[in-house]
Amino acid sequence: MLNWEIISSYSFLLIATGTFLLASAAGVVGSISVLKGQSLIGDAIGHAAYPGIVLAFMIFMVRDPLILLLGAMGTGILAFVLIQLVNRQSKLRLDAALAVTLSSFFGLGMVLKSYIQGHPEYASASQAGLKNYIFGQAAYIMEDDIKLILVIAILSLLLFALFYKEIKVFIFDEVYAKTIGYWTSLMYGVIMVMTMSIIGVGLKLVGTILIASLLIIPTITATMWSDRFHVVLLLAGFFGGLSAVVGTYFSTLYNGLSTGPTIIVVMTLFSMFSMVFGRKGMLRQAIERSKY
Predict the structure, then answer these.
(1) Cα separations in angstroms, 211 against 19, 263, 280
(2) At what angle do helices 41-60 and 65-89 cross, to 10 degrees?
(3) pLDDT at residue 101 above 90?
(4) Residue 113's pLDDT is what?
(5) Which of 29, 78, 184, 214 is 20–30 Å from 5 (CA)?
(6) Helix 164-172 × helix 143-162 angle, to 10°
(7) Which helix (H) or strand (E) holds 266?
(8) Neighbours of 132 (CB within 10 A)
(9) When comparing pLDDT for 236 and 64, which is higher?
């Protein structure tokens, strides 16, 4: 039975709203990288955003969500550009470029975090909460965080809708997109802004370690039920949002469960169920094979 006292509580509604908005938008935006075969770009950018957060704090000496978001977007965009340059201009494969970028940027973030912890110049500024951007701490989000997530989610989805036709062609055939006159550099820019914005506002909720899961898992789940692009987008947003609400409920119901990891576990369970029982799942495939 559902605990209606928890469901009607202010803290649950606040956290559930934030995680729902984030996970739904992440499911839609993350489908681009997954369907294009570049799923781990979100993971690399997520780790690369952490030094931007610390640098923003070092410069402005405040933990304002918007300022930290801009810092995260700065280093995340830099990482995205570096990944694309290395992938195009060198002999390194994409997975190697992702690994180098991920480790180097995240290492820089940890070095900067260690530096400010022991430096007297930053002793007067509150550093509490910066470490939460590594593993996430959804229980500490505030109304200002929810407002920022809402704005970013709406803007990202509007941007996606505005370039829907171009993005669809770009994902499935980049060469054809160039042939018919689409400016692929613009597409990379649009995708980068959407992805980085979602990652930037999501770090406080699920952290740099798990943020990629919000971008990847809902789309994997959705592809087990449909081949149609617009249906996959809708299902990815649905499964992302549903996982967020269910995960938030269980983390609130049971003491000691962190919200971010619980959401990812629920999301993974939905994905595993879909892989077995989905319209394109293993069970359906086995039944189809048995007919022949």
Answers:
(1) 12, 11, 26
(2) 140
(3) no
(4) 86
(5) 214
(6) 70
(7) helix 259-277
(8) 18
(9) 236
| C-alpha to C-alpha distance for 259 and 242, rounded to whole angstroms | 14
Determine if the pTM surpasses 0.70.
yes
Other beta carbons less than 10 A from residue 5's beta carbon: 8
Reduce the secondary structure of 166-210 to three states and give it as a string.
HHHHHHHCHHHHHHCCCCHHHHHHHHHHHHHHHHHHHHHHHHHHH
Q: What is the pLDDT of residue 285?
A: 86
State the number of CA atoms in the 13 A half-sphere of 267 facing the CB. Answer: 36
What is the residue-averaged pLDDT of the chain? Answer: 87
Residue 180, C-beta contacts closer than 8 angstroms, at least 6 positions apart = 169
**Cβ atoms of residues 27 and 240 within 8 Å:** yes
Which among 192, 138, 134, 163 is positioned nearest to 23, based on CA atoms?
A: 138
User: Encoding tokens for residue 10?
Assistant: 């202010």
Q: Tokens in use for 192?
A: 């980068």
In this predicted structure, what is the pLDDT of residue 125? Answer: 61
Burial status of residue 120 (CB atoms within 10 A of its CB: 0-12, 13-18, 19 or more): exposed
Beta carbons of 45 and 80 less than 8 angstroms apart: yes
